[in-house]
Each structure stands twice: as C-alpha cells, then as structure tokens.
Amino acid sequence: MTRKQPDPAKPLVADWDALQRIFIRPEDEASRASLVKYMEQILFGLHDFLGRHVGITREASLETLAERFKESRINRNPERKLADVIRWVIEEVAPHGVNVASPYFVGHMTAAIPFFMVHLQTIVAALNQNQVKLETSKVFSILERQVLARIHRMVYRLDDGFYDQHVQAPDSTLGGFVVDGTLANLTALWVARNRLFPPADGFDGVEAEGMAAAARFYDCDRCVLLVSRLGHYSLRKAGGVLGIGSRAVMPVDIDGNSRMDTAALRATVETLRKSPRTRILGVIGIAGATETGTVDPLPEIAGICRENGIHFHVDAAWGGPTLLSERYRHLLDGIEQADSVTIDAHKQFYLPMSSGMILFRDPYLMDCIAYHAAYINRPGSVDLGIRSLEGSRPAMSLILGSALEIMGSGGYALLTEHGIETARAFADEIRRRELFELVTPPELNILTYRICPPAFRSALRTAGEQERQRLTGLLNRITVMVQRLQRESGRSFVSRTTLQRTGQPDTAVFRSVIMNPMTHIGILKEILDEQEAIYRRHFEG
Amino acid sequence: MTRKQPDPAKPLVADWDALQRIFIRPEDEASRASLVKYMEQILFGLHDFLGRHVGITREASLETLAERFKESRINRNPERKLADVIRWVIEEVAPHGVNVASPYFVGHMTAAIPFFMVHLQTIVAALNQNQVKLETSKVFSILERQVLARIHRMVYRLDDGFYDQHVQAPDSTLGGFVVDGTLANLTALWVARNRLFPPADGFDGVEAEGMAAAARFYDCDRCVLLVSRLGHYSLRKAGGVLGIGSRAVMPVDIDGNSRMDTAALRATVETLRKSPRTRILGVIGIAGATETGTVDPLPEIAGICRENGIHFHVDAAWGGPTLLSERYRHLLDGIEQADSVTIDAHKQFYLPMSSGMILFRDPYLMDCIAYHAAYINRPGSVDLGIRSLEGSRPAMSLILGSALEIMGSGGYALLTEHGIETARAFADEIRRRELFELVTPPELNILTYRICPPAFRSALRTAGEQERQRLTGLLNRITVMVQRLQRESGRSFVSRTTLQRTGQPDTAVFRSVIMNPMTHIGILKEILDEQEAIYRRHFEG
What we know:
Two copies of one chain form a homodimer.
Chain A: H1 16-24, H2 29-44, H3 46-53, H4 62-68, H5 82-93, H6 115-127, H7 139-156, H8 160-166, E1 175-178, H9 181-196, H10 206-217, E2 222-228, H11 233-241, E3 249-252, H12 262-274, E4 278-286, H13 298-308, E5 312-315, E6 340-344, E7 356-360, H14 396-432, E8 436-440, E9 446-451, H15 454-462, H16 465-489, E10 495-499, E11 507-513, H17 521-539
Parallel strand pairs in A: 2-3, 2-4, 4-5, 5-6
Antiparallel strand pairs in A: 1-7, 6-7, 8-9, 9-11, 10-11
Helix pairs in contact in A: 2-3, 2-5, 6-14, 7-14, 9-11, 12-13, 14-17, 16-17
C-alpha cells in the first residue's frame, strides 16, 4: 500500500553489518516478540487465526483496494522493519483476502488445510532444496521417487516386483511432481504428442523437428484430442502450447449423468480413423469433472483406446485421492488402464498451494521429453530435472510423503467419505426445498443446482423451444444475481458456472464443492436459507 | 523410510473426531511442545539450525539411501504421530539433504535465504490463496499486480503515466508470476510464437490451429530462435514443447568474453532472411549466463532485432536483480529495449524455492495466450489465470513484495555488490595461484576456473592441435576428479561444467557462484586450499 517515505536520514539498513543481521535473525527483542506472536497463532491456532484475520472486514470494493496498491516504485531504503511488514500483511492485507478455510466457503476446490501442512511447508522453505538436481536436494530427490511410487501404486496397483525394480532406478520415471494439474495435463499431452510422432528413419521426432515437420513426415493435416464437454480448460491450453492447436480439442457429448457418451466417442473415433490425414493424439477421461465432479466411464474409454492404439489420459486432478477410500474407490475403476494420470496434491490431498503430479504406467514413456545440460541433468544421473517441464522447484513431495504417514490412507479416506456423504445429504436437502432444482447430483463431492421456483418448473414442463429458452434465460439471471449478492454479503461462498447440456439451453447453476471437513449439513442448510432469503428479498413481493 | 507397521489394533486416527482434531491442532501437549521446539529453531535460528541439521552426516551413498526409501505401499493407519514425523524429517532425513545455505556451498544458484523469507512462506501457506482467480485471492491478486509493476519499472523505467494507467487495469498485463525461469522463458516464446503467426483472413492463428497449419498458411518450413552457445537448456526445451522443435534453437558464437558475437548474429540474421521459408521467432540475450554469469551486448542485439522486426527476449533469470544496484545496473543496459524479460525471484531476490517472473514491455502482448472458462477466468474479469501457463499457484508475489519493503533496493544492492566484488577478489586469488587458471572472469558474480599446473601451461602454449586436445583431455579429467572428491568430502561444494569455446577443445571447469552474503574471501581461499591439497594427494608424488 502507499505510505509515506521513511526519513532518508535514518535508513533501516544502514550498512553491510546491519544487512547481515537482518539476514540471520530479528533485529531486536521487540521485533522477535512480535514475530513470535504471529507465528504462534499461525502454527498452533491456524483455523482460529484465519477466522479472526482473513476476509472478515466490511467488503472493500476492488476499485478501492486497487487504489491502495498503485505505487510502482521500489524505495531505496526499507519502508518499514520486518515486524512491521509482517504486522501489515496480517492486519491490513489479509482481511481483504479470501478465507478459503471457512466451512461456509464451498465454492471452489480450495479449502481449509490441516494445520500441520503449514509446519511442513515451513520446513520445506527452510531447507530450500531444489529438486531439479541431486546436488541441491540429494535425499529429497530419493524421497520424491518413493512418494511418486506410492501414488503410482495407489493408481495402478502393480505388483511388488514392478515397484522394487522401478522405485529407485535411475533410468525409470514413474512420473513427476509439477506445479499443478494444468502442467500435469500439459506434460501428459507433451509425452503423447512425442509418442505419436517419434523419431524414424529420416526424421528426428517432433520434439527436435517441430509439428510442421512432423505433419509433413507423417503425412497428416491435423491431430485431435477427444474429451467430454466437461474437460478442463487446461486441455485446450495444452493443445495451444504444444503447437497442435487449442482447436485440436474436440468435445465429445455427455450423457444425462454428465459422463462422456461412449457411443459418441466410438462413433467419433471411427469417423476420424477414416480420414487418413487426421491423427488422434489422445482421449482424456475425467475423474472428477471441475464443474460437476462426475467421473467418465473409464473402463469403456480404456477399451476404445486399446482397440485403436490411442493414448489414454485420465484427468484425476480432483478425484484421484478417492482411491484411498475402500468405500468409494470403485468409482474410479478403469483408471489403472490409463497411460497417464493427473492428480493434484493441493486439492484432495490437502496440501498448501500448489502441487500437482503426473503419473505414467510405462516407466520409460517420459524418456521422449528428456533434456540434458553440461552443468546439470547429465545423462545417466538421477537428476529429476531431466524429464520435467519445470526447472527449479521445491520439495513439495516431502509434504505429501509426510502427510501420507501422518494421516494414513484411512485418514484421507475419512475426509473423502465425509465430502461425498455430506454432498449427498446436501442434494437431498436441495430436493426437499421447492425453490431449488438439483441440476447435477453428486457422484463425488461436487453438485450443481439452481433456483427454479415451482411456477417456473411447471411452465418449463409444457413450454415450447422458444419459451423454454426465455424461461431459462430468466432463471439464469436469477441464479447469477443471487450468487453474486450472497458472495458480496461476505458470509458464504458458492461458485457459479454455466452448464452446456445436450439438447438444452445453457444453464447457469450454483456449484458447490464439499471438501472442508468442518462443513456439515447444518452449514449447508444455512447457505440455502440465505439464498432463499436473498431471492425473496429481490424477486418476490 | 521403511519401518515396522504400527499395531493395527491401535490406529492413531481412531475416528472422525480424532481426525478433525488432527486437522486443527496438535493432538496433545507433548506433541505441541515437540513442534514448538523445532519451529522455534527454524523460524528464529535458521542458519544455526541448518548448520546443525542439514548435510552434516557422514556421506551415505546414494545406493544406501535409496535402499531406505523403497517401500511403495501407503499404510492404512498412520505410521506415526505428527510430532514423530516432524522429528523424523529433521533428525533422519534432513541430515542427508544438501546444506545449500552453507557459505562453503558456492556451486549453484541456490544458497542461504534471509530467515524472514521462511516466515513469509509460512504466512503464504497458511492463507492458502489461489492466485488463478480473484474469488480465491482477492487483495492478493491486486497486490501481485503491484509487485509486477514494481519489477516492470525496475526493468523498463517507463514513466509515471504508464504505470498509473496499467498497474491495476483489468485489461493490462505487465507480466506474470510463474514457477521458475524455465516457465518464464517458455511463456515468452509462447507469446513470441503467437505473435509471429497471428490470426489473419482465413487463419485463426497458431494458438488455435497449431504449427502445421501456421506453416502452411504463412508458407514457411521452419522457424528459428537465436541465442548464444551459453543459452539455458530451457530454451531448447521451450522449442520442443511449443512445437517449433528443440532444434529451432540455433547457437550463435560467443566472443572471447563469453558474450554473444553480434557480428555473427547480424550475419546469421541476414543469411536467414534470404531464405523466405524460414522465420526468426526471436533472439534471446542473456543477462547472467548460467555457466559464466556473463551478459550479452544487449543494446547491439536490441538494435539488430529492431531493424529486422524480431522479438527480443532477455533471459535475466540470474542477473535481473543487479538492476537494483546503482553501482552495477549499467551492466544490464539495453534490457529496457527487450520485448520480454525473464527474472527468477528464488535466485537473486533470495526467495524460497521457487518463484519466477515474466515481463512484457507491451501490456497487451499477453492477450494472445488468453484462455477463459465458464466457472473462472471469465472474459473481462481481473482473474490472473486468464493469461498464464499455470493454473493454481500460490501468492509468492506477497513474499517478493514484502521483501522489497523489508530490504529496500538498497538492501538488495548490498547483496549484489557483495557477490560481484567477492567474485572479483576470488578471481584475483585464482590468478595468484599457479596451480589454477581462471577460465572466465566474473562479470557478475559467477566465474569458472580449472586446474592447470605450470608445466601444462607452458606445454599448451607451444602444442599443436592434437597435443592440445590430449593435454586438455588430461586437465579435464583432473578437474572433474578434484571436483568430485571435494564434493564427496562434504565440506565445500563448487560445481563443474564443460565449456565449449570457439576454436578450442571442450574445457571442464569449476564453476563458482557467489551469492551467499556469508561467503567471504577467506572461505574461498580455504576452498582453493582444499582443492590444491586434493590435487597434490592424488596427482603428485
């Protein structure tokens, strides 16, 4: 924020000695005491701290906030002492952040995290290892390989012999940690692209020669990616980045349960295979769609891919950790047939922002994206940076590995089961209330619904095409407005999206994600009560 | 590590209530006391803590360590309590990590960080904001824009009017935070690619249609990227990822000072422009080469790019923060003419791993990589995820913004100046010792040298081509072996690389990076003493 210049005659960092001290410890006892106070609250009373400090002020408009953050110069002298900066962050900035840890924040895939995750992140920052190479990480590279093997085994369930062979073999790559699901999907499709256009006699492969040369050599005009209409936007972006084009992503229709229509997929694949100058780069199955939480019929998709020799990728950024629940892991059956799988650790593994993973069934598939340099990542080394989109990156794998030990699969299962079962109870409650319509019931722990008063409901039943459009447009505006008013009132947050459903007009819906273990059905009822009240205040009487 | 199963009759997380408690606070007073002990050491005695706990055990071989991290199953029940896991991480794992904070670790671009960076990282983890969208970050998105404007202004020095207009304008994008320099370079070249093959009548642009279609429409066979032989390997990787091919990166010769030979660049550009089916996607100038720390002649490169209408990117991942030193900022003159600039915050801004930035002179250039979705990043919103390679990501900008306030540009300048001046003193010391040869003197704070005993030096002066090859091969083996033995002895770490110099055989060198403010010339002399001792023990007498 803008504030007055400190007195230039009294610089806070007077000289080299002062700077070295600042580097190493608080400048004085008062400063230390102030830091201790905040750190103690954060590390040992996180959820109270967030409730007290974050997102609790009267709503300041974006315009007002923006005015306070316009200064673009860097001062020569420190603006304030360390303790004052920390106090400013906590007392003046954080209140205008978003309390994603609130049990009333059920709108996005970001929520409360266990307090010990903050301890682990603190340790990771303090150790400051760089996972790009062994020389700056050593045991942490080895530990990362173990954590990857654990997650790989959770997904693929291969036998002891497989994991004994590959968990620590320098020439094997079971996958990689990446910053998030977007980069995990990008990495999967990067590998799939290179696999589709490999080196051959007279061609050094698409990685070396590029897409234009690959198209010429392999005699093709375009390649396509098939995913349901609910595919994450990172897939289009990956198409754009990889030089196959964002338009390469062809949406496949969904059925009435928001899952990929596999008859439509089969028909599309058959049609595409008839045009010899089109290649199918991959089919993506979704395990936990961003908007609806639904899971595609993975075994059927796997079968179609196997029959046609197509790379099968599963985007389980959201749903992956459901595999740790014995009660619900069957919902993801078929995932073990995928060539590659995306899982986010900052979603249902409850890590701090951000950490994703990409896994490959075949531990040699990532060889087609290997890069070396003279100073690091030398051929034959165990440097994790050899097969990786990113270069420098922190040891987030230490956090996941430790959390798996602290929670056990049983602990994670309790969280997953709470989410799924609370979402089901929420769906029942929505069905019971006449103002609302459940649009997509929860398969995992995400559901969508909208406002649809009884009068509209009966009108919609008999309406013709045009009237239906008009009524839906009205309902959309109501839902969008109620969502906005609820968000602005600052107590609860449900997100919104617009669903495209086959044969129906675009439908604006509330989207609710139940992942916070402190969110219970009582809170969800309050959220519905508030929405009803807002509706009645603005649209009735 | 492998250890025995806990008694299945006594699960540590017995039930839902126990889990909720684990989520919120330490399970008991003993556990809390144990955590407090470690966190206090980490937060308030970081450098002592690292000296005591990290990388200090007798060297365990990789094979030995690998054996301990082979278990690939996830236990159903927690393996140990939280406090025990933290104790295990600190007492059993960390000692086998790398103490990158040691002043004797002068081998890589990773070093000690100010203790308060760990406090700031703790706060970022606790707040757990997701910068992909306003709804999960609010003020932190606004603050990020301010921090980007400050860094943009440090680089481009445009006027108040420019920054007043763009710092908080929803339709402007001065750049972005990314996970590291690799992704920053990738983002820059992604934009440059889309700029080279934009939408036109009958073509929707390379982003939508892909590289094969772009090549057809724009009638070209290949595009190339020009960078000196010292370019970072992430540039080749970016070529591979973007579908233009890793081979698109054409190395330009360097001069005797390890800088791009601009006569060679000019000649190459002229030759390439004569082949109408080749496009130059960009020229990259380096500001702080990874291996030698040298800075390309940026004003001359900028001129050549301007004359020829070529995108000019500067990779200042390393050197960028030198701009905060009034004494040395002239070394980067010309950077303000770049279309795009990469700067890493986890390097010379001393942030924890990892945080990079990409900056664009033109605040609308990133529009060509915009993506939207129905649930976030809606058109017209200020969601930072609209123009970004990554999706979910933490508020690392809060750390950089706070650090700039705590240190001031003056504080950062002291660090930079210490590094540059200590490296110069180190170079003088190397020159004084007859066993060593300074191979590339420090322009910033990186230098390379090798072992070259007097007898070899005189022999090299008179040797013919073949003898020169043989002698260099011998010297290379000596330097490589001394580097390895010193690393394995565990006290000091200098890295090594192999330099390709025009007209000379490949040369193995020690590479030294001076960024730790606790590294002084006395320590560097000890490092040379140790290298001399190793040499004498193994190669003499």
